[in-house]
Fold:
Amino acid sequence: MVFDTDKFISCIQSNPYIWEMGSKEYMDKFIKQKSWLNIGETMYPDWTEQPESEKENKGKQNSIMLYFTFLP
Structure:
């Protein structure tokens, strides 16, 4: 499966609670957790069936890919 970077960025942009520090929801860890869960479900159709360790690995990989996407 090829990772869809554009889709991932779109998911992040549509969930400002996880990146917009001026948002009052930014400090609410439950809202942020739910946002990340929704992103995982959008990116990976079988997300809810994955063991927690696999979810963590995919999350770390996505963070790394996103980081390198924005490097000059």
Q: What stands out?
A: The helical segments are 5-13, 29-43, 52-69. The first helix runs from residue 5 to 13. The radius of gyration is 12 Å. The chain is about 60% helix and 0% strand.
